[in-house]
Specification:
alpha+beta, Elongation Factor Tu (Ef-tu), domain 3, OB fold (Dihydrolipoamide Acetyltransferase, E2P), six-stranded antiparallel beta barrel
Length: 364
């Protein structure tokens, strides 16, 4: 036991854990804080004023020299097509959203009643021409009657002269004398009647001073022309190119009323923007100034344009019920003036009438 005791300290020394190394001394805080503080100070001293100057210059170049509004909408010419004659729809040749060319068939109305009107007017022309022939024959007959009546007057005159001579000598009776005088008056009256009939016949045969055609025949021809026009109007064609809208009223079998809008054509090839600017934005605005247009429906799409016209009145001035500011409780409201912006380039996306837009006009 005593021999082993000197080795115990060595075992305990081997079993003891290794001592941890001492940590390095911490760096001095002043060595890093000083450079960081100097860098931040320089940024605040020089960077912030530079940002303010750049922001002010940008505002002056972009906002100070332009006016903008988001009260703007895409507009297009719209033509309401209506039938000029009434009738039942027998054919529909277009659908909603279809692009049509000028003169293209839109729909057709039953033309049978109007074809009958044309036939009736043609018959009226024939009747008028027959009547003219009858009047011509009547005029010739009147000329013959006048000649016969004049011969009767001559005979009655001779008879009356003979009876008058005999009456002076007393070789005839009073009755015979009166009868010869009455016959002479009757013959003269027949001449006047024949001449009046001939005058009437010539008046009915007279041609119009402007057309050179008998008025009855001309009236019948005009009636037929009108009937032919109405027959042609049963075929309704596009008055201009555009996109078809509101064609749901076109249904086969539906009765079409003359003058009632049946379909709308939108001229999508020539859009423009109507921007309603505040009256306080018009001081430096002029026709022809450059404009930039963006659309809510197409983010990122911008179109160059220019000011085409500036409205002649505010929006409230042309409203159905304009505001009356004659009361004592009057409050001044900034008015809006419509400004038409024309496109200088074709948009990258198809335009739709009524789209919301933002417009900026560069006034300098």
């Amino acid at each position: 036991m005593d021999q082993l005791s000197p080795s115990r300290p060595k075992a305990e020394e081997a079993a003891a854990p290794m001592a941890a190394p001492k940590p390095d001394p911490l760096p001095s805080p002043t060595a890093e804080v000083a450079p960081k503080a100097g860098w931040r100070t320089r940024v605040l001293m020089f960077g912030l004023p530079a940002l303010l100057v750049a922001g002010g210059a940008g505002w002056w170049l972009t906002s100070g020299g332009s006016v903008s509004t988001d009260n703007a909408y895409v507009q297009m010419d719209k033509v309401s097509v209506a039938a000029e004659v009434g009738g039942r729809i027998t054919e529909v040749a277009v659908r909603d959203g279809q692009q049509v060319a000028a003169g293209q068939l839109l729909f057709r109305i039953d033309g049978e009643p109007y074809a009958l009107n044309v036939a009736q007017a043609t018959a009226a022309i024939d009747a008028a021409q027959v009547e003219v022939g009858n009047l011509s024959a009547s005029a010739n007959t009147s000329s013959v009657d006048i000649a016969a009546a004049r011969e009767d007057v001559k005979f009655a005159q001779v008879t009356f002269d003979r009876q008058a001579a005999l009456m002076e000598k007393g070789f005839t009776t009073k009755a015979a004398y009166d009868a010869s005088r009455h016959a002479l008056s009757q013959a003269r009256e027949s001449v006047r009647q024949a001449e009046a009939a001939a005058t009437e016949a010539r008046a009915k045969l007279a041609a119009g001073p402007s057309s050179g055609i008998n008025p009855q025949v001309e009236a019948a021809r005009v009636q037929r022309s009108q009937a032919e026009v109405n027959l042609g109007r049963t075929t309704v064609r596009a008055p201009s190119a555009g996109r078809v809208a509101q064609s749901d009223r076109l249904q086969i079998g539906q009765m079409m009323v003359a003058g009632l809008p049946a379909v709308t054509l939108v001229d999508t090839a020539h859009p423009w923007v109507e921007a309603n600017f505040k009256e306080t934005d018009l001081a430096n605005m002029r026709v022809g100034q450059r404009a930039e247009i963006s659309f809510d429906a197409y983010p990122g799409v911008k179109v160059r344009g220019h000011v085409l016209t500036i409205g002649a009145g505010t929006g409230s001035e042309f409203s159905v019920l304009p505001a009356q500011n004659a009361t004592g409780n009057w409050v001044k409201v900034t008015q809006r003036v419509p400004v038409r912006i024309a496109f200088d380039e074709k948009p990258a996306r198809d335009m739709i009438a009524g789209l919301s837009a933002d417009v900026r006009v560069f006034t300098k």
